[in-house]
Amino acid sequence: MSRRTKLWAAACVLALAGPAFSQEPGADTVVATVNGTDITLGHMIALREALPAQYLSLDDKTLFDGILEQLIQQTALAQQVPEPLSRRNALSLDNQRLAFLSNEALNTIADAAVTDEALQALYDERYGAVDPGTEYHAAHILVATEDEAKAIRAELDGGADFATLAAEKSTGPSGPNGGDLGWFGLGMMVKPFEDAVLLLQPGQLSDPVQTQFGWHVIKLMETRAATAPTLEETRDELAGELQQKAVESEVTALTEAAAITRNVEGIDPAVLKNTTLIDN
User: Fold this and answer.
1) Which of 240, 82, 213 minimizes the C-alpha distance to 144?
2) Beta partners for residue 185, in sequence order
3) Which helix (H) or strand (E) covers residue 34, if one does?
4) CA dihedral sign of residues 232, 236, 241, 242
5) Residue-averaged pLDDT of the chain
6) What integer pLDDT is reported at residue 46 of this predicted model?
7) H helices present in 18-86, as ranges
8) What's the first-to-final CA gap in the chain, in angstroms?
9) Residue 219's beta-bridge partner residues?
10) Is 214 left (phi over 0), alpha (psi -120 to 50) or beta?
């Protein structure tokens, strides 16, 4: 076979193999064309970014094919809507564009608000100079009436085992565990319960205490000094607070700085129900 024949054969093989990218694909690389409308790799990447998290667990090939097929179908469908758009469709697109752009602005503001310095400053403000207080380890026996609670207190005073009585008689979910409520800080229990605990020393029993749940006999097991949460433990909470404050502040500032004219005097709010105004 001559050299020219070999080159011609190789060219035929390449042609049959289909088009190949001569360089690394980029955002403008056309991956499909539907009736003359191009779909680019950039369109696909943007759509992937907007997908719910559960779709991102798909393998790359399945996701690539699915996104491309969706864009092809959407393009074909969109071409069926006649131009120019109806007033309703044009206004809806305006609103969607406005919502998208404003959301992008909010995301930018929120992201910029969360820095290591801002997180540390808010953490120091919130926890640095604050005494974390005391934590309490208590158990209780919960019953329906005061008389039952008094009878239980009498049994305990007579030497009955607290955990055994709790397992036998408490109506609360902690009963099977001997009434043990674990560790808790101030503000975590209803006020009458908390007030009773604060009067006790470790090992002491309370008189019957009424709350909305019934009547309690409480035993304070032990106390300990509470510890403040670490920065890492509070990072998400603090970041959310920084973002909310930044967004609220910036939206207020932008709105106050904008040249706004409201021309709604004399317009009946019920006019929003008149959809015929955008029918044409």
Assistant:
1) 213
2) 135
3) strand 30-34
4) positive
5) 91
6) 95
7) 41-49, 60-78
8) 71
9) 139, 205
10) left
41-49 vs 60-78: helix axis angle to the nearest 10? 110
Which residue type is seen at 55? Answer: Y
Which pLDDT value is given to residue 77? 97
Q: How far is CA 231 from the centre of its chain?
A: 19
CA angle 105, 41, 73 (to 5 degrees): 95
Q: Which two tokens stand for residue 25?
A: 């694909």
- For residue 43, the tally of other CB atoms under 10 A from its CB is 19
CA distance 242 to 230: 17
Q: 18 pLDDT band (50/70/90 cuts)?
A: very low
Strands 134-143, 37-40: parallel, antiparallel or unpaired by DSSP?
Answer: unpaired
Domain segments of the chain: what residues? 19-80, 86-117, 134-225
Say which CATH architecture domain 134-225 belongs to. Roll (3.10)
| Lookup: tokens for 93 | 């697109």
The residue-averaged pLDDT of 245-267 equals 96
CA distance 71 to 95: 22
Per DSSP, the three-state class of 131 is: coil
Placement of tokens 């469709």 in the chain: 89
d(CA 88, CA 279): 6
